[in-house]
Specification:
single chain; about 130 residues; alpha+beta; five-stranded antiparallel beta sheet
Length: about 130
């Protein structure tokens, strides 16, 4: 009987097979890695958003508003030394639920990655104004 990782990969038509009995698997999606793992009857997806600890306070300022819009949670993973986004669903979710779960998680990742990209954009300095007589 397939586990939730295998069901997720089947639901999203992921091309690589999940090793039999695996409780963790990395999916290469949209130029990044989404980690999927089974924990206590839940399927947990996570993705690294930033490795800069200095980004965390700014990103955290968005978190409260995002919690009202999505179920993904921003966190600092001390082991990885990275700011991550994670979300969970029941391991017994249907294929349709798993597909929806995966798509909404990726949409959340896209939003957060765009905020990180905004943090590294250098502000454009206005040229000094010179008035010629």
């Amino acid at each position: 009987m397939p586990n939730a990782l295998e069901n997720l990969c089947a639901a999203i038509a992921y091309p690589d097979p999940v090793p039999a009995g695996a409780t963790a698997f990395q999916l290469h999606v949209d130029g990044g890695v989404v980690a999927a793992r089974l924990m206590n009857g839940r399927l947990v997806l996570s993705r690294e958003i930033s490795r800069e600890e200095a980004d965390l306070p700014r990103l955290a300022s968005y978190a409260a508003g995002r919690l009202l819009r999505e179920e993904a949670v921003l966190a600092w993973d001390e082991r990885a030394g990275a700011c991550i986004l994670w979300q969970e669903c029941p391991a017994n979710a249907s294929s349709a639920q798993l597909l929806h779960f995966f798509k909404t998680f990726l949409a959340s990742c896209d939003w957060w990655l765009a905020r990180v990209a905004d943090l590294v954009v250098e502000p454009v300095a206005a040229p000094a104004m010179v008035i010629m007589p």
